[in-house]
Sequence to fold (468 residues):
Amino acid sequence: MTALDTRSGLMAPLRFPEGFRWGTATAAYQIEGAAAEDGRGPSIWDTFSRTPGKVRNGDTGDIAADHYHRVDEDVALMRRLGVTDYRFSISWSRVQPTGRGPAVRKGLDFYRRLVDTLLEAGIRPVATLYHWDLPQELETAAGGWPHRETAYRFAEYAHVMAEALGDRVATWTTLNEPWCAAFLGYGNGVHAPGRTSDVAALRAAHHLNLAHGLAARALRGVLPGSAEVSLTLNLHAIRALSQAPEDLDAARRIDAVGNRIFLDPVFHGRLPEDLVHDTAAVTDWSFVRDGDLATAAAPLDSLGINYYSPAVVAAGTSESPSPWAGAERHVRFEPAPGPRTAMDWPVDADGLHELLVRLRDELPGVPLVITENGAAYDDYADPSGNVKDPERVAYLHAHLAAVHRALADGADVRGYFLWSLLDNFEWAYGYSKRFGIVHVDFATQRRTPKDSARWYAEVIARGGLGES
Fold:
């Protein structure tokens, strides 16, 4: 976890570079609540969470962590932590209830207030335009992300937000985890809008890439010279079970549909040839029009990386339904060794180092930011009201050490955003999983910093890791 000082035999602290950004992150539908207040329209997650059987315990984001009414309290929590940056997402349907047309003033005012409160606290706002909560009207009337119109509407929305907040928000992330939006939302249906179609998933992935490029152009059109534009991808650290050719080919297939389906268009203006071949039985990709890939390759100021755990794959047949379009009959997933989180995800910080070193080599000159990293555990307040979460502290320590190791290996990592500030609505898991470093009693909305929050505050204060 720390570097060995050979002169003393002690473990020396790991310090991060001067100016390294220490942040935390949330998403609108997961924390805001106020689902029907001040003109907000329904999103696909409102509809999905109200559909019987889709979300555990029938939970919805109607109230969530009630952040809409508790902005001052939550920013004060961040200020006490000492974070330099806060990554939040904007609810598209709070600003444009149907995904098009004039903005709702009260919706814009909420985000203006949030940003102003952050700035007053000395915290840098990092705004994400899309974290999966598509306005329902765009899904119903326009067909959602499998259709081009949604990408054009997204660019208009980006223009609206740049005009509203561009004088106060320095960094804009266009999309968060488009892989999840495309393949979990349209491929195997475990996320909103709950559709199950390989071709719809592939079409959605392409139009999300297009939307990113159009939005980047819109942001820079309103904010020439001042907008820092980023994209956040949940890149997969993929390991073949063995060096057998068929297992290596399974890893290649998952890399194509899990990573390069976004990396190649966004950074190289092309589709991976092997992806097109692998998915030929699903689609001929005729929905990709001339100029689309050049648009998707709009210049970026940084790449955001969300990492939680690696994937181990082998030749075989995937469980059904699978989100991995074109790979279902060729790939099976194997359990990774080691401890697991409450999500049953393996804990493996080496995978984060692997990703960062890969990107160092494949994308030279592109600054990297860890925009999400964290873990869910079963956290409860003890009789004295304290929430002890040593497993989360160990997880975070290991992953920050992996980031430090990648920095030492030449990866240009500029910041780390811990997921998440608050316990929240965890998508299809409802309120059954807790990722926050601040415990939320959802019955009373009481916030209680966990031991991990105090630990993270110490990390930020010292600028790195001390002895574990």
About this structure: The first helix runs from residue 28 to 31. The chain has a mean pLDDT of 96. The first strand starts at residue 3 and ends at 5. Residues 98 and 141 are 10 Å apart (CA to CA).
